[in-house]
Design a protein that fits this description.
single chain; alpha/beta; Trna Endonuclease, Chain: A, domain 1; 8 helices; 22% strand
């Protein structure tokens, strides 16, 4: 749910006046990873936001994480969630200046926002399919076509090599199979 919700938020950010620049942005100090920001975004004034995305409710730990990661890169902290897990999270966010956007379970979009979200999702899907089609070797295509599931594919080809050359969204047997069928 978390990764899917993050992709949804990527498509929704323009409706909030933010434009995504990176997702799963890793923060390093002295060559050591010290944090990861779900989405790095910029507003129309050039302000950078470190966006922490929670598919559920935000708790105190999540507020601290958003604040710390934003401070590490000199960005403004922003959390997008479906509510507060506890009153302490609301108070801490207010105290630390962490902006929190609360989304209801159902979101109503304008036609333009819906069109933008759909277009972004469609373009991402095409990019995934293209990556699959252009990166698969003949033996991998044959394994995908002839196998009923990913376990069978992994018995025939090196799945670590296969998945390392594909985008994260392509690391799913049904997606691989559909892309192979489209390529035929």
């Amino acid at each position: 749910m978390g990764a899917r919700f993050e992709r949804y938020i990527l498509d929704l950010l323009p409706a909030l006046g933010l434009f995504p620049k990176a997702s799963r942005y890793r923060i390093y100090r002295n060559g050591v990873e010290v944090g990861e920001i779900d989405i790095l975004a910029v507003d129309g004034n050039g302000n950078t936001y470190a966006v922490e995305v929670k598919a559920g409710k935000i708790d105190i730990s999540g507020v601290r994480q958003a604040y710390t990661n934003a401070k590490l890169i000199g960005a403004k902290p922003l959390v997008i969630a479906r509510g507060y897990a506890e009153e302490g999270a609301r108070e801490l966010a207010k105290e630390l200046g962490v902006e929190v956007v609360l989304l209801p379970d159902y979101i109503f979009l304008s036609i333009d926002d819906l069109y933008t979200a759909f277009t972004n999702a469609f373009v991402r899907s095409l990019a995934v399919i293209t990556a699959i089609i252009t990166n698969l070797q003949e033996d991998e295509v044959e394994a995908i076509e002839s196998c009923p599931d990913v376990n069978c594919v992994c018995e025939r080809v090196n799945c670590e090599d296969l998945f390392n050359k594909l985008p994260r969204e392509a690391r799913n047997f049904d997606t691989l199979l559909q892309a192979v069928k489209i390529a035929k």
